[in-house]
Structures are given as structure tokens and as C-alpha cells.
Amino acid sequence: MSCLILRNMLACVLLLVLWKGPSTAVAVEYGQVPDNITVLEGENVTLRCRIDVEVTHKAWLNRSSILFAGEDKWTLDPRVSLVNSNSSDYTIQIENVAVADEGLYLCSLQARNKPHVSLVYLIVQVPARIVNISQDVSLNEGGNVNLFCLAEGRPEPTVTWKASKYGLMSEGEFLDITEIKRHQAEEFECITNNGVLQPDIRRVKVTVNYPPTITDVKNLSSAQLGKTALLRCEAMAVPTATFEWFKDDHRPVESDNTLRIKNEKTRSLLLFTNVTEKHYGNYTCFASNRLGATNASMLLLRPEAAYSGGVSDGRSVNGLGLWLGLSACVLLKA
């Protein structure tokens, strides 16, 4: 055991004396300084020492220990094996290379009572990968968003945040958005790259919640007796708005054999399949979610009457009272 420790110490001293900086190569030529060997983590690498003189002793060493002395294996690492040992070639192989294998390797030869040394510096690369990233985020409009994306790799990778609507957003692991607006809601891409294999890409979805805004109301057909008619109310909101219809004295409108309500994701349709006298009047569309509510009014009139309609500005006494009452109910439920 003491002999092994002594030899390892001598190997370390020899490396320190002879090493003049990193240098590696696919083949380590006798009597010349080789290029670096670059290998991906997990691959196999061959270190070759070519011999053009008669040698009496030869050995492969790394930074801290003797790997092979002649054909005798000194290292306990099962991944290291002797591939060739003859008068012209002295080659070892390391399987499943790990980051810890990076560093200086030395082929030492004794020829004509003189030492000869060839050096190789092994560089182990690791593809960039994302190791931790923010979860999907849901927040109310006006809030602040703080996203992070942590990556690792060798060489050190870059991290870039991108948004499909705006392109490049930020360089670095962190992306901060203050007082976010509804139009900024989307999936944000974190891209990490270090030039080894393909970039690693992950996405974070940011949802911005806001109260309903009625964007359009329209009387889409004439209201003739016995004919069909349609009223439409469109609203944008996150979460999606719930629609309700009210008529004149604020009674909720309900579907029957002459009237049907069709609610879709961003709009509600009031379909009259057979217009009667009772259908004429003022209709109010009420859109709400947990963040608030809004309404809009429109008229369904006889053909001879002047038609007017549009988004309510809140100055109608009946419309205002209805809106305030229903808004209070929505907020109490939230």
C-alpha cells in the first residue's frame, strides 16, 4: 500500500513539472504536443500513444494516479481498459466519460535510458439543459410577473427568454414584467444553449385575468311579426364571462318555443324563431366573471318604429339599477 501511495505521489509531481498548460488530441504522438480531445459526457474516448523508438518502460497516468504501468492495470476504475500495447502503439480507452474525467493525461515512456512524455488534455462537454423553471402563472391584470429558468451545461450555457408576439424579451435566467396588461398574456419560451447538440426549450404559460368588456352588440335582423330575429352580445374576459339576458322590467329572459339563448365562449345570441308582440322592447345583456361585470342594452322594435341600439353608457336609470344590483351579487359571490 505504501508503494502505491508513493508512486501516485511521484505521478502527481511528474505532471506538475511537465505540464505547461492544457493540450489534448485524438492521438497522442510521441515527441509532440497534441491538440485537445473534446468528448461528450457519456461517450467513449481513446487515448493513443504512438511509439517510434524501442522502449523499456511505459505508463499512462492522469492527474492523481497511475492508470496502467505497461500492461498492468493500476486503476480500480472498470471503465478504463488497455486497447493496445505493442512496439508501436500504447492505447487506453475510457468508457462512459464523466465530467470528473476532464483533465490532463500523460503517456510516459522510457527509451534509451531517457524519459519521453506526451500530454493530452481531455475536455468533457455536457449539452445545455433546463433544470428548473417557473410553473404556469395566472394573475390579475396590473400584477407583476417574475419568471425564472435555471440551466446547466459545459461550457456554461446562455439563457434567453422569448415571447412569440414580441420576439426576444430578455437575456438571462430571470424575466420580470411589471403591471402586466391583458395583451401580454401568452406562452413565454426559455431557450438555453451552449453550442453542444440542440438547445433545450421549455415554455411557461402566463394567463392574465380581467373583468368583462363588452366589445359589440347588434340587432342583426328586422323584427317583423312571425319572422326570425337575432340580438348579439360579445364580451372579452378572463375567466370567460357568463352571459344573462334581461327584458324591460328586469325579468330574466328564458328560452321557450319562440325564443332561444345560445351562449358561446365570447358571445351570447338571443334567437327569436317567431317574433310576437311580447318580444318587442328593451333587452339588456349582462356579462360577468369573478372580477367584475358590465352590461349593454339594445332594442327590438316593430319594423315601422325607428331602431336604435348600442352599448349602454350607464346613464339609463333602469339599465344602471340593473347593472348595480347584478354587479353587487357577482362581487358577493366572488
From TrEMBL:
Domain Ig-like: start-end pairs: 22-118, 127-207, 212-301
One Pfam entry name: V-set
SMART domains per the UniProt record, alphabetical: IG, IGc2
Domain of life: Eukaryota
Signal peptide (UniProt feature, chain positions): 1-25
PANTHER family attached to this UniProt entry: IGLON FAMILY MEMBER 5 (PTHR42757:SF12), IGLON FAMILY OF IMMUNOGLOBULIN SUPERFAMILY-RELATED (PTHR42757)
Protein name: IgLON family member 5
Originating species: Clupea harengus (Atlantic herring)
Highest classification ranks of the organism: Eukaryota, Metazoa, Chordata, Craniata, Vertebrata
